[in-house]
Amino acid sequence: MPPSSLTLVFALVVCGFATCASAAANAPASKYQPGTISKAMQQFVDGNQFGGAIMLVADKDKVLVTECVGYSDLKKKTPIKPDAIFWIASMTKAMTSTCIMMLVDEGKISIDDPVEKYLPEFRGQMVLAESDDNHRLLKKPMAPITIKQLLNHTSGLVGGYPFTGILDTPSLGERVMAAALTPLGFEPNTRFSYGNGGYETAGRIIEVVSGISYWQFIQDRLIKPLGMKDTDFVLTKSQVARLAKTYTPNDDFTVMTESTIPLTYPLTTRARSANPAGGLFSTANDVARYCQVLLNGGELDGKRYISRESLGIMTTTLTGKLLNDGQSENGYGLGWTTSQYYKPSNPLSVKAYSHSGAYRTDMCVDDEHGLVMVFMTQRGNLGDSSAFTNPFHKLAVENFGK
User: In angstroms, what is the C-alpha Rg of the chain?
Assistant: First the structure.
């Protein structure tokens, strides 16, 4: 659903209150008391839920408030700052989806096109019908997978490059070829199975259709025009110095251990490939710029990035009841988790859409409340982050929502 023209952007980035308090002066002269968000989030630093985090609040035109809590380096007790850089991981998927919809708007592709139209290596791909310790039975799928199914995780692609868990090696083309040679895990459009293979394949389609690398396309068409100066797949030395360290809590949250990102090191090397499913680094301000495009109906500062129609498709539930067997209030569009049903315990409206990253970064746009909420931290140990994002969203809605 296209955002309302009256939409207010809210991007909250958790950072040490003393460091970020001045930014709160830009907030509306209303009920918000500077430091409210950072004080509420301090309990999660004290409880070893994460080392530090950032929240940034903006409307569709400007930043309203930035607050921080905790540290970018726990050992050195270095307070996290508003310009800290984070690996945003799967939040990259939303931006990749936006790039696909740019090609749709230009009439170069349709999301209903079969993938094999652009990538012949997918012709003749089979689906796994039966499997046990002694045999595997393959059959032809009812229909070839489509671009839309790549983007809403219903394609059946469950394979990927089999030799490494690192996300940026080998090349994008090699990763996609491995996915094409792997049987589909289920009949397309019959299940929802979240993964990276669909978005890697979508990135490869961008390369074939545009004639340039996915890396160059997303830079030229989205990142550079928006002035997202700290968003890229490779960091400079000065950016590495601003990278928030990743900490993984133990099971009872008594100890936080420094951990690494599953990418090729050093992070400054351009020998890595750009991963469309989860490779980007970014900052709170840069993510807010991207979200402002959505809150302005697909345009910003007089430049249109995608049509309202394409934005509406991206942010509308396209998975029916396939996600969690229909037992969840959430669905999935193209690059965005969507809200299907109102839930009183959830402060967000049914017009909200969001996406998180593996290390607990999160961006959420709520058209009804007129807010974008961006939460940035670096925490290993995958798990549900709603324990701290829900109260964060609640404060955002209460203090800045329409």
Answer: 21
